[in-house]
Design goal:
single chain; alpha/beta; 41% helix
C-alpha cells in the first residue's frame, strides 16, 4: 500500500527512551505490545541481554506504563484488546546507567533510603514489602543496565570485587521478595 504524498510524516523515535513521550508526541512505533502482554502474564522473572541502543530502556518504560495502568497510552495497540483490567501496581524502576561508578560509594548511593543499622539488601526488601502492603498490590521491579557498574570498572579488580558483592546482595533480595513481587524484568548487555 502506498502512502499518499501529502500524508504527514511520522517522527522517528531516535534516542527516545520514554514510552509516554513516544506515544503522546506521535512518534513512529512498531507495535510489540502483544509480546509485552505475554511476558507480563508469564509470571516469571525475566532477564534480557541485548546490545546497547537496542530499545532496552524503551521496553522497560513500556512495561512501566503498562503496570501503572496507563491505558490511554496503549490506545490502538494490540495490548488494548488483550488487557481487560488495567490494574495499577507499585513500580520500582531502577536505571544503573546514570552514574560514573568509579568508586564503591557511587554504587552504594543507590541504597540511600535511611534507617541506621539496616543492611542495604534489608532496605531494598523493606521498600518492596512496604510498597506491597501500602498499595495492596504486588510490586513490579524493572532494572535497566544491571551490569553498568561492572562494565565501568574492568580496569580495577578491587572495584569489580566490591561491585559484585554489592550487586549480589541487591539481586538476591529479588528471590527472597517473591511473595511481594508481581513482575521482575532486568536488562543489560
Amino acid at each position: 500500500m502506498d502512502t499518499p504524498i501529502n500524508a504527514p510524516l511520522r517522527k522517528l523515535p531516535i534516542g527516545i527512551q520514554s514510552f509516554e513521550k513516544l506515544r503522546s508526541e506521535n512518534f513512529l512505533y512498531v507495535d510489540k505490545t502483544a509480546l509485552i502482554y505475554r511476558l507480563a502474564q508469564a509470571g516469571n522473572p525475566c532477564f534480557l541481554s541485548r546490545p546497547r541502543r537496542f530499545g532496552n530502556s524503551l521496553l522497560l518504560s513500556s512495561f512501566e506504563a503498562y503496570f501503572q495502568g496507563k491505558k490511554e497510552l496503549f490506545r490502538g495497540l494490540a495490548i488494548e484488546k488483550l488487557e481487560k483490567e488495567w490494574l495499577q501496581y507499585p513500580v520500582l524502576h531502577l536505571s544503573l546507567n546514570a552514574e560514573k561508578y568509579d568508586s564503591r560509594e557511587g554504587l552504594i548511593e543507590l541504597y540511600r533510603t535511611g534507617g541506621e543499622g539496616i543492611t542495604h539488601s534489608g532496605r531494598f526488601m523493606t521498600v518492596i514489602r512496604r510498597a506491597c502492603e501500602q498499595t495492596g498490590r504486588r510490586v513490579v521491579v524493572l532494572i535497566d543496565e544491571y551490569d553498568k557498574p561492572l562494565l565501568r570498572s574492568f580496569d580495577s579488580q578491587e572495584l569489580q570485587h566490591d561491585f559484585r558483592e554489592t550487586l549480589t546482595a541487591f539481586y538476591t533480595v529479588l528471590k527472597d521478595a517473591d511473595p511481594w513481587l508481581q513482575f521482575v524484568f532486568i536488562t543489560g548487555v
